[in-house]
Amino acid sequence: MFDSEIPAAVASGINPDGSLQLGSDDKLIVAFYKRAVQDEFQSKATGRPHFVEKDFVKIIQPGEKDIVDRPVKELDKQRWPAKWQAYLQKKSQAADGTPLELLYPDNPVIVATLRAWSITTVQQLANLSDTAAGNLQFGGEMRKKAQQFLEGAEKGKKFHALERTIQEQAAELKELKEQIAILMAAKEKAA
Fold first, then answer.
1. Is 144 exposed, middle or buried (0-12, 13-18, 19+ CB in 10 A)?
2. pTM for this one?
3. Per-domain residue ranges for the chain?
4. How far apart are CA 95 and CA 120, in angstroms?
């Protein structure tokens, strides 16, 4: 059944069992936190406001306007176990990825604008949905630039891996040449 608490922007369809199919979880920003909530029963019983702490979850599709902000459900803990554990251990729940400042080092206005749209990493920008890119001025161009940046970084990794392999082979070759020189010197001495 469709959960009306989750915005349509995050939904990507309905599963055969009728449950909501969501967009890729690795693209979502998920943060667990505590919030003070008024306990209506205790407030009525004591005649004054009474508050209790409750666990909440905020779910954001980067670049989208809709934000889910509601009490935590057991399903949330199962769906994002690493984030839940980080929350319980009071560790950072920030998105992993390349900071936007590396893509726009000389343009803090763009970085601030993207952060206002809950886009905090180059990876999130590169994976924006068409709707999210459409929400941003020049969103399509920024998404393409982020994708090209990541492609270049991936090529750089391959280049550095190849360079490392070449250096290792050169060191092996040098060692073999030294061993051959020692063997040749020993052979000449013996002759």
1. middle
2. 0.52
3. 1-94, 97-191
4. 7
